[in-house]
Amino acid sequence: MHALKVTRAEDFPEWYQAVVREADLAELSPTRGSMIIKPWGYGIWERIQSELDRRIKETGHENYYFPLLIPLSFIAKEADHVEGFAKEMAVVTHHRLKAIDGVLKPDPEAELAEPFIIRPTSETIIGDAFSRWIKSYRDLPLKLNQWANVMRWEMRTRMFLRTAEFLWQEGHTAHVDEADAMDETMLALEIYRSFAEDFLAIPVVAGEKPENERFPGAVRTYSIEAMMQDGKALQAGTSHYLGTHFAEAQNIRYQDKDGAQTLAHTTSWGVSTRLIGGVIMTHGDDDGLRTPPAVAPRQIVIVPMLRGKPEDADLKAYCAALAKELGALTVFGSGLRAFVDVKDAKPADKRWDWVRRGAPLICEIGPRDAANGQVTFIKRNALREGEKIKSHTLARADFVAQARQLLEAMQAELFAEAKTRLEANIRADFETFADLERHYGTEDKEGEFKGWVRVCWSRPTGAALEEVGERLKALKLTIRNAPLAQPAAFGKCVFTGAPAVEEILIARAY
Amino acid sequence: MHALKVTRAEDFPEWYQAVVREADLAELSPTRGSMIIKPWGYGIWERIQSELDRRIKETGHENYYFPLLIPLSFIAKEADHVEGFAKEMAVVTHHRLKAIDGVLKPDPEAELAEPFIIRPTSETIIGDAFSRWIKSYRDLPLKLNQWANVMRWEMRTRMFLRTAEFLWQEGHTAHVDEADAMDETMLALEIYRSFAEDFLAIPVVAGEKPENERFPGAVRTYSIEAMMQDGKALQAGTSHYLGTHFAEAQNIRYQDKDGAQTLAHTTSWGVSTRLIGGVIMTHGDDDGLRTPPAVAPRQIVIVPMLRGKPEDADLKAYCAALAKELGALTVFGSGLRAFVDVKDAKPADKRWDWVRRGAPLICEIGPRDAANGQVTFIKRNALREGEKIKSHTLARADFVAQARQLLEAMQAELFAEAKTRLEANIRADFETFADLERHYGTEDKEGEFKGWVRVCWSRPTGAALEEVGERLKALKLTIRNAPLAQPAAFGKCVFTGAPAVEEILIARAY
To answer: Which residues of A touch B38 (CB under 8 A)?
Structure first.
């Protein structure tokens, strides 16, 4: 028996929805395709924001805020960009409502001369500002970041993974030349890799996307890819070298040291609330979420075993003192987040609530613990021994002394577990497309674990790449990226048999 | 000579725009009515967010995130609410663009069956969630908060003070009865009062708005009002007791202890980026902004007097070590924010940049300072002695030892200065409307300092209040609020001569 009604093995997509619901992370809203993010989910996002913001600022970026609405003419300037985004934008056409025959409608007299779109991403409006701000090479590099909501009109939505509105961070920078812009592109990618691994305990493979998977308007797109527990890939962050495409479209030029007017090279990069989906599908188990301690809104939850009797007061005092002592500690660079749950509910219900949310350490303190000066607790990442819940008891002083280490160890264990899964499930022994077909073409059931493959290819372009894409699509596969770490020599292209030039990762993906 | 080209006395509105521009706080964007918030302005907002968020959480509220887009039918449910907001909303009518005759337009085939509006405030969509979440008295109080962007289609905009899009925090709570909801309404008001005074150094008067100035749909609206340096009032935050209006419109009912289905009582309260406008008009001077130290993105800025010579390296090292030492200190509950400005620009230009932005302490360190182990600095709130810039010198160890105290003293001095201005400029000696007309009706020039008046009134309602509003409007005045602190007895109503029941503040306002 587990805390969720559906297990990962039975039905992974259903299990995912169950975790989102039972861990009280988010729920669907009456606005089609948008979700309501609830405190445990938003708390994880706040931790992501605060730590990633620190790393982004530390590397010389400053935060700005640009308008939500982008004039329609802006989006039309970069041809690939509009092709990539025009099909899924929310369009604002009126600025007033009016009761017409008793029904509230857009006021025909308040139609906008030029419609606005709700930003799906902000290259165009930020590029416009760049063109005004950048005059000389002295103004470069210009490195900025924005935390914002964006909107893409998705037809099939899944909470956190693909929603019409989502929250994200978008970095935008301008540079004197390709070399400097590429350094920035790789810097952002490395920020994402280290953040995902160190802070979210999600191991990833960083690499370059193939031509047909690039961001609309990019010269090169890089991604970090994570393996979910169903063996699918999740693109968890992207970094784009935009070359001079947006600079040309928006006239971003600077006077170089010789006095010549020169096009700037720009980059953009982003991660979003999708990361929370990655946390769920990397660390969740059949009892709910296991929140990595670094990112858990509450790291140690203390549940007093109240009985509605006079002794309760002593018990509460014991728990409050414990929480205070724990709160004075530092872990993962911040104050330890300890919390006493005194809600009017049964202790067992509270325990299971916190298990489903994945609070890392859950202390259940009864009168005997208080009397003996001890702490009884469960570790969320090692919840059971066989079917039974495994609890631990330590003297209070020892628990406080070890708290930091317990949380750090859990963070490391979650990462190691996911890292082992990733490494054990990338096959590197496929040499022909027939191997791929054998492996991916014979599904016993929807969602069977297939993992990723790492194969050699000759990096075809244009129509030849289109054809590769079609062949993979028939197996529901996509090329995820060409990992940064490449061997010295290559075999033959798995698609054409021609000499290969690169290794790529292929997988089913979210 | 001052750092700005226009002084407060010459032209206050022009001076305001000059500060926004010269302190690099924000600029107009190509999206009509929306601004681009730049790092110094956004940094102030980040400080506001982080400190206010702490206070909001400390008082038992949790953060959520609700959708940006609200279905049109939701906004129509509360009659007063729609009346108040329908005239100024951005309406989303399409979800796709299409090239029609080569021009990108909203795709006629992608017209939404029900339009969405961009949230001008979120009572309706949050109320809908309340109606689903609240079942029993055990679910109450439900106290939540959201940090979000909102949009109101303003025709006349002024940066930070009134923009189409702005950033804010909106609290929304539900309670078992009026008493509990009113406690919450007053708690939020007190959070705003203490935050404005302690953290932004803006003295305010907290009080209740008259009936005709209430939030659309509210039973009672409270505000904090601040006096700007031109004598006008700025409403800096509001807290609303919504009674059961939204609960009725959205069916927010709970089962009470006796099993009966009962309407919940709700509240809402918010502050926005408008607060930054308040900081500017409270603390700015003719040299730019004076940023209160608690909220300054950089509290101590160190400008090394570099000369492009080999000695520069030593000077930079001296400054970096000083910044590191300062950064280890704690002030206003956070780490001290020290910064070395090594930008490639003339030291004098850098000094004036920081003066205009209002960095609290600006250190100018030359080779002699480094050699003597001392720090030469200016205090932004006491910049000049006569016309001359006044600089101070302290031994480095003394400067570090006194840094916290220097910043705390400056915070207190800025508050005291504004408090003196507020108290000295509320006249309380007017007994008739003729007094008001004499004072406000004879302007020599636009923008002359008139301050506020505190008068008695009989609190008329309905048509009688409308008439009072019209009479005041002719003098460009509005009732700001009825301060919480009221005398024991009242004179006669300044409008009608009838026995008064309350004192109110009257002023010109933003």
So the answer is: 64
Chain B residues inside the 8 Å CB shell of A43: 63
What is the pLDDT, as a whole number, of residue B344?
A: 85
Nearest Cβ partner for A95 among B91, B99, B116: B91
User: Does residue B446 register a pLDDT over 70?
Assistant: no
Q: Is A83 on the interface with B (CB under 8 A)?
A: no
Residues A509, A45: Cα–Cα separation, whole Å: 23
Whether A462 has its CB under 8 Å from any CB of chain B: the answer is: no
Q: Which residue of A has its CA nearest to B36?
A: A66
* Phi, psi (rounded to 5 degrees) for B239: -135, 130
DSSP SS3 for A155: coil
Q: Minimal Cα–Cα distance from A97 to chain B, Å?
A: 5
The label of the residue with tokens 């979440």 reads B133
pLDDT, one tens digit per residue, over B324-341 is: 999 999 999 999 999 999
Q: Which of B64, B69, B106 sits opposite A37 (nearest CB)?
A: B64
What is the distance between the alpha carbons of residues A122 and A148, in angstroms, rounded to a whole number? 10
Element (H, E) at A175: strand A165-175
| Model pLDDT, residue B331 | 98
Gap between the Cα atoms of A130 and A77, Å rounded = 15
Mean pLDDT of chain A: 95
B338-340 and B334-335 strand pairing: unpaired
What proportion of chain A, given as a percentage, has pLDDT over 70?
Answer: 98
Answer whether B94 sits within 8 Å of A97, measured CB to CB.
no
Amino acid B154: pLDDT: 83
Give B-chain residues touching A116 at CB under 8 angstroms.
31, 90
Strand partners, A261: A255
Sequence-distant (6+) residues with CB within 8 A of A496 are A457, A458, A460, A464
More confident of the two residues B447 and B46: B46
Give how far A501 is from chain B: nearest CA, Å.
Answer: 40
Interface of B with A in 8-37 (CB under 8 A): 29-31, 34-37
Chain B, residues 123-152, CB within 8 A of chain A, namely 125, 128-129, 138, 144, 148-149, 151
**Cis peptide, bond prior to residue A141, ω within 30 of zero:** yes
Dist. CA A327–CA A337, nearest whole Å:
6
CA distances from A110 to A37, A95, B455 (A): 33, 6, 41
**Domains of chain A listed by start with CATH number:** 12-84+122-283 (3.30.930.10), 293-418 (3.40.50.800), 426-507 (3.30.110.30)
Cross-chain Cβ contact B118/A30 below 8 Å:
no
CB contact under 8 A, B63 and A71: no
Residue type, A27: E
Full DSSP string of B269-287: EEEETHHHHHHHHHH-BTT
Going A125 to A127 to A129 to A131, the CA torsion angle's sign is negative
Q: What is the per-residue burial (b if ≥16 Cβ within 10 Å, else e) of B347-374? A: beebbbbbbbbbbbbbbbbbbebbeeeb
**Whole-model pTM?**
0.97
Q: What is the dihedral of CA B470, B473, B479, B480, to 10 degrees?
A: 150
